[in-house]
Write a structure and sequence with these properties.
This protein has about 450 residues and is of the alpha/beta class. The chain has helices at about 55, 70, 80-85, 100-110, 140-155, 185-205, 220-235, 250-255, 255-265, 290-300, 305-315, 350-360; strands at about 5, 10-15, 20-30, 35-40, 65, 115-120, 170, 210-215, 240-245, 275-280, 325-330, 365-370, 375-380, 390-395, 400-405, 415-420, 425-430, 435, 440-445, 450-455.
Length: about 450
């Protein structure tokens, strides 16, 4: 086994396993897609602990989707239909029957980080013994009118409101998740969707309405087909079709958009956008989600180096798929799902994975890059005036020697800034790798790692 200089500048054993990457620096493939939208923006409550607004702003998040906002903003009545319009029997045409105050402030914090808003019309998940808000509405037409009032407030300035031009409105969330998110039948949800979608689209033809933001699996295909059939039968709009997916391997998520696109096309919805409304790395056991030790282990795993590499691998792999939008769950500090510690709200390791992708996305012209190595994804971009960057996501695996071959003699190794995310580095600069014949040689540590290379 050969020895040599590692990327960290220490003499050591060079791994036998090799990952070979080739970058055609002058071959532009198109625009690099910023698919790193998230669920939940900077919270209103708990800011005395730490305000994560600046850290979220650094991610240049395209869109923040609102689901489960009350879970993090404890004590506040925001976003959910039953919280914005608490007395269901009142007249939805009367502004005083709504309480927009806290949602107004929440949206303002999202806009402050430079993101747009995608609004979920429905209710947050309930884990309480008694369920209070996730029941089918007593009057579906009344519920649709309430939703129209919410949209009027945020898009037309009604009720001392705003003109935020919120485009995406999702009707409910995971109605197949009974009873935590829906206590009715699937037919009840179809009726709700058809009623609300038609009413919203008739009143606001320029917004996009969709759903059901459901967990997707082969056993649920029949439910999807019933919803699609009802939309065709009743001429209900389905501008976007959304699903949730938590996976143990990046490829599970990367492959999903093509499956959804085929399903929609086969059932007569070729213009419907494909959204993944929630996604994240999840290696755990859903039946143990309430056990403290299991949750602490999940927190270390999801928010650690595995989570960082998972994020970068998925966002890189999605570039060549028919996905229109993906929303990481979550962009904030909610439990072990977020990019921030749920107690002190400091960025965790997975935050720096998202930050690495966000920095790469600034190099908007996508450059051709290929990789020969297991469980490794690469994505390259350049700016209009020449500076280039390369993102390498290595999912788990042993230590390896990464050889980056640059098809551009002007990019010398001395001009490369190498940054690393792993178990001990949070997108920290490390000494530039050795170079020979315009190739960069990097030593990947055992486990998951993310490398961001930037050339001036």
């Amino acid at each position: 086994m050969a020895t040599g200089m590692t990327s960290a500048g220490r003499t050591g054993v060079v791994p036998e396993e090799a990952i070979n990457i080739e970058v055609e620096c002058a071959r532009v493939l198109g625009t690099l897609r910023p698919l790193h939208s998230v669920n939940l923006g900077p919270p209103l409550s708990g800011t005395r602990v730490a305000d994560i607004t600046a850290d979220m702003r650094a991610l240049h998040i395209p869109i923040v989707r609102y689901h489960d906002a009350p879970l993090e903003n404890r004590g506040l009545q925001l976003v959910d239909v039953s919280r914005v319009f608490p007395l269901f029997h009142l007249d939805p045409a009367v502004p005083e029957n709504y309480d927009f105050r806290e949602t107004d402030d929440y949206i303002a914090k999202t806009l402050d980080i430079g993101a747009k808003v995608s609004y979920r019309l429905g209710e947050s998940i309930e884990w309480s013994t008694k369920l209070y808000r996730v029941h089918p509405p007593k009057d579906y037409e009344q519920w649709a009118k309430i939703c129209i009032g919410i949209i009027r407030h945020y898009n037309e300035g009604w009720a001392n409101g705003f003109r935020h031009n919120i485009e995406y409105w999702c009707i409910w969330e995971e109605p197949e998740n009974v009873p935590q998110l829906w206590t009715g039948t699937w037919d009840d949800y179809i009726r709700l969707y058809v009623t609300a979608a038609k009413a919203i689209k008739a009143r606001f033809p320029n917004v996009k309405v969709g759903g059901p933001a459901m967990g997707m699996g082969s056993a649920r295909r029949e439910l999807v087909e019933r919803l699609l059939a009802a939309c065709r039968q009743h001429a209900a709009p389905l501008d976007f079709f959304a699903v949730t997916r938590y996976a143990t391997h990046p490829q599970d998520l990367i492959a999903l958009p093509a499956v959804l696109r085929q399903l929609l096309d086969e059932h007569g919805f070729p213009a419907t956008e494909v959204h993944i409304s929630e996604w994240n790395y999840f290696p755990g056991d859903w039946s143990k989600i309430g056990e403290l030790e299991h949750c602490l282990w999940l927190e270390r795993t999801i928010q650690g180096a595995d989570g960082a590499a998972f994020i970068c691998a998925v966002l890189s792999g999605w570039q060549d798929t028919p996905l229109d939008m993906g929303f990481f769950y979550v962009g904030s500090a909610l439990s072990h799902w977020g990019l921030f510690d749920p107690v002190c709200r400091k960025p965790r390791t997975n935050y720096y994975g998202m930050l690495a992708f966000a920095r790469l996305a600034e190099y908007a012209q996508r450059v051709a890059a290929r990789c020969a190595g297991r469980d490794t994804w690469v994505l390259a971009g350049r700016k209009a005036h020449g500076p280039m960057a390369l993102l390498i996501a290595c999912w788990q695996g042993p230590a390896a020697r990464i050889v980056v071959q640059l098809k551009d003699p002007t990019l010398a190794a001395a001009r490369c800034r190498l940054q690393l995310v792993d178990a001990v580095h949070n997108l920290a600069p490390v000494p530039a790798a050795s170079a020979a014949d315009n190739a960069l040689v990097i030593t990947k540590p055992a486990g998951s790692a993310v490398f961001l290379l930037e050339w001036a």
